[in-house]
Amino acid sequence: MIKVLLYEDNANFAEGLKNILSLADGFECIGHFEHPQNAVQEVKDLQPDVILMDIEMPVKNGIEGLKDLREQNVQTPVIMLTTFEDDENIMQSIQAGANGYLLKESKPKKLLTALTDVMEGGAPMTSFVARRVLKLLSAQALEKDLKKNEAYNLSSREKEILKTLCDGLSYKMIATQLSISYHTVNNHIKKIYDKLHVHSSIEAVNKAAKERLV
C-alpha cells in the first residue's frame, strides 16, 4: 500500500484526487492539507510514502514547503502536481529537491504510474516538462562553458591553437596548418599554459577536454 499525503488548496481537485486514490488498488490518501506551513511536523506524524505537492497555495507555497522538508532532512519523495509549466517553477522545484513534476491535467493512470515510479527511484515528469528540463539544463551547461572561457580570457587565436593541440598536432604541424612560424606557435602556447595554469600540453588538453574550452 502506497501512502500518499496531499497538499492542495483547491477543495474540488483535492476531492477528485482522493477519490482516484481510494478506487485504485494499492494506494491510500492518508492526509490532506491546504498549505504546507506545518509540513515538516505533518510528514513526521503521518509517515507518508509519497507527497503530492501543489505550488500555488495560501500561507506558504509548495516550493517553500518542499525547501522546509529538505532543510530538515525529510527525504520523503515529493511530486509537484501543478498547473504551472513555466521554466522558473520547474527549475525552482527541481533545485529545491522535487522528485517529480506533473501537470494537473495528467490523466489518473499517469498519476498512479508516477506514484509507483517515484517509489522505485524514478523521477516522473510529463513529457512537456521533461523536454523543458533538458532544454534548460543544456542552456545552463552552455552558459557555464561560456563563463569558463571568459574566465581564462583566451584569445580567438589561442583557442584555435588549443584546439589543434587537442587534435594531437605537433608545434610544427600547427605552424604549417595556421601559416605561422614555429616561434609564434611556441609563444602562444606559453600564454595558453599561463592562462590555464598548466605546465604541459597534456595538462592543457586534459583541462580543455574536461572543461569543454574548445
Tell me what you see in this structure.
This protein has 214 residues and is of the alpha/beta class. It folds into two domains: 2-131, 3-Layer(aba) Sandwich (Rossmann fold); 150-210, Arc Repressor Mutant, subunit A (Orthogonal Bundle). Helices cover 57% and strands 12% of the residues. It has ten helices and five strands; from the N terminus they run E-H-E-H-E-H-E-H-E-H-H-H-H-H-H. It has helices at residues 11-23, 39-46, 62-71, 87-96, 108-119, 127-152, 156-166, 171-178, 182-196, 201-210, and strands at residues 2-7, 27-33, 50-53, 78-82, 100-103. The protein has a five-stranded parallel β-sheet with strand order 2-1-3-4-5, with helices on both faces. Helix 7 (156-166) packs across helix 9, helix 7 (156-166) crosses helix 10 (201-210) and helix 8 crosses helix 9 (182-196). The longest helix has 26 residues, at 127-152. The chain starts with a strand and ends with a helix.
What tags apply to this protein structure?
single chain, 214 residues, alpha/beta, Rossmann fold, Arc Repressor Mutant, subunit A, 2 domains, five-stranded parallel sheet, 5 strands
